[in-house]
Amino acid sequence: MKIVPIPAFNDNYIWLIHDDESAVCVDPGDAAPVLAYLEQKQLDLDAVVLTHHHNDHIGGVAALQAAKPDLAVYGPDDIDCVNHALKEGQELNLLGQVWRVWFVPGHTHNHLAYILRIEGKNRLHVFCGDTLFSAGCGRVFSGTMAELEQSLARFAGLPKDTLFYPAHEYTVSNLRFALSVEPNNEAASKALEAASKIPTLPVNLSHEKAVNPFLRLEAPEIIASIAAKNMPHASSSEVFASLRELKNQF
């Protein structure tokens, strides 16, 4: 089983999972690079899975459906192009593998994530859309701050070697923000140096717990940075909300 990033737009990744014959595509905001890759590798697209409704994640679905009219499209139940609506806790069998569906609202009210366990392997692979980024998280649009915090906490409970596949390469900017609130974080400093030279995704949970401020709400230096800006910091939820507001302005 192979998991391939297909670059799109300025900083999107469309993730393609395939077994050298059939493929599943995650969040195809643009059909053209997906169709080109499928043709190059002589792959049949079995299904599309969507994390949420933003156009840079679903904009290519119509063209993919035009190329294959019986294409299965999985995702939240309020996206028009979805023909297999999903809810929390459902399991899909795609490419002979089990994909578990998690409801992870916050960035949007209807955001889903897909937890893939490849047969014979212990490591989990999480297609997390815009909920978690390396060293960051998505903005709150139609969800709530509390939902986003809970969704990230849920991710944080997964095994430390879990690999996350965010939909954007925002890592350099996110690490710069992380160091603005935790300047003595050596792991984040080293990660920023590396991120300037190589692609950073996928990323494992152990690394994220070391560098991602939204998973480090108890770090004294982060709390002190927020307090110094006279922002709410009396609880982890206040620290989270203050961090997200600071990142919005960064």
TrEMBL record:
It is an enzyme of class 3 (hydrolase). It holds the Pfam family Lactamase_B. Pathway: Secondary metabolite metabolism; methylglyoxal degradation; (R)-lactate from methylglyoxal: step 2/2. Its cofactor is Zn(2+). CDD domains: hydroxyacylglutathione_hydrolase_MBL-fold (cd07723). Its EC number is 3.1.2.6. The keyword Transcription regulation does not apply. It comes from the Bacteria. SMART domains: Lactamase_B. Binds 2 Zn(2+) ions per subunit. It catalyses: an S-(2-hydroxyacyl)glutathione + H2O = a 2-hydroxy carboxylate + glutathione + H(+). SUPFAM superfamilies: Metallo-hydrolase/oxidoreductase. GO terms for molecular function: hydroxyacylglutathione hydrolase activity. Zn(2+) 2 binds at residues 56-57, 130, 168. Keywords: Hydrolase, Metal-binding, Zinc. Thiolesterase that catalyzes the hydrolysis of S-D-lactoyl-glutathione to form glutathione and D-lactic acid. HAMAP family: Glyoxalase_2. Belongs to the metallo-beta-lactamase superfamily. Glyoxalase II family. NCBIfam families: GSH_gloB. This is Hydroxyacylglutathione hydrolase. It comes from Vitreoscilla massiliensis.
